[in-house]
Amino acid sequence: MSGDRQIQEVKSATLLRFNDLWKQNFLANNNILRSNPGVSALRHRFKGMPAIVIGAGPSLDKNIHILNQAADKAVFLASDAALKPLLKQGIVPSLVVCLDPQEDISKFLTGVAPQGMTLIAPSIVHPRVLDTWQGDVIFFNKFAPDIPILTEIQKAAAHLGNLTPGGSVLSVAYDLAFQSGANPIIFIGQDLSYPKSQTHSRGSESVSEDLGATLDKQRENIVYETDMNGRSLPTLKSMSVSRHWFNWAFTTWKREEPLEIINCSEAGILTEHLQLMPLREAIYRYCQKKINVAWTLKKALKRK
Asked: Which burial class, exposed, middle or buried, applies to 92 when counting CB atoms under 10 A from its CB (0-12, 13-18, 19+)?
């Protein structure tokens, strides 16, 4: 199946599934959105700081214990599904990013003390997620000019700023790191495929999803992609689309200063237009200087 056809299939399915929910969630969140500074407040705030974008792919288990070596020396942007595995290792990410509008993602935040972390959430996030978090939140609009309801929402809450979704939560995390000026941007746990017997990191709330059962359940949505080791791996059409999105973003988005993009996942299908490097080496090269992310966030958001 061609990449363009996959993109259209995924987009059509997403629109059919979520159009009403996006609208309902936005209306429910409207009051809190009005007083929120939005991700626009973070533009250029991490300029020149290394950022580590953390997904919950199975490969996270290989490198999660190394991340502490970069504590206070990089901006940690974690996907919602990666949060609990990180906390179990004593790693507190500064930013936790979510994208899905469904109530179900509140499971990733349940029982978590949000101190020291800020949730980055779409303006169409489910209200139950905000009830569960009970901590600092920065909102963004999903930039999707070909989807009428999201365009309307973007206009209604223009002050928030936009992040561009690309089929996975790490797409908006990358966009945030890009807009914030972070450099380099380092990925871990970014498999976009199913390289072993698991669908997610062992510490994730989704780890109980058996790979065999997932492949059977998603049979019509499974495609195969070549990973960084030349193997053909099963993945979902949506994750294949996400790979194409990243390749587009890496080659299309430009900044004044040169940007280094590094994939330290050591697994998966994200292999083009970036460097492949072990996490230890990336930390040694780029994460040696102390930075104060908490102070930067406080200043950007004008917190007391």
From this structure: middle
The 3-class secondary structure across the chain, one letter per residue, is CCHHHHHHHHHHHHHHHHHHHHHHHHHHHHHHHHCCCCHHHHCCCCCCCCEEEECCCCCHHHHHHHHHHHCCCCEEEEEHHHHHHHHHCCCCCCEEECCCCCHHHHHHCCCCCCCCCEEEEECCCCHHHHHHHCCEEEEEEECCCCCHHHHHHHHHCHHHCEECCCCCHHHHHHHHHHHHCCCCEEEECCCCCCCCCECCCCCCCCCCCEHHHHHHHCHHHEEEEECCCCCEEEEEHHHHHHHHHHHHHHHHCCCCCCCCEEECCCCCCCCCCCEECCHHHHHHHHCCCCCCHHHHHHHHHCCC
* Residues 275-303: tens digit of each pLDDT: 999 999 999 999 999 999 999 999 888 76
Sign of the CA dihedral running 110, 115, 116, 117: positive
Give the CA-trace dihedral at 156, 179, 113, 36, to 10 degrees: -30
Which of 62-71 are b and which e, b meaning 16 or more Cβ less than 10 Å from the residue's Cβ? bbbebbeebe
The domain spans of the chain are 3-298
Q: Which of 185, 188, 194, 189 is nearest to 213 (CA)?
A: 194
Question: 232-258, pLDDT tens digit by residue?
Answer: 988 888 888 899 999 999 999 999 989
Cα–Cα distance between 214 and 69 in angstroms, integer?
34
Contact between 27 and 149 (Cβ < 8 Å): no
Q: What are 179's two structure tokens?
A: 């807009």
Residue 225 and residue 235 in contact, taking contact as beta carbons nearer than 8 Å:
yes
CA distance 217 to 46: 41
- State pTM to two decimals: 0.90
Q: What angle do CA 58, 112, 290 make, to 5 degrees?
A: 75
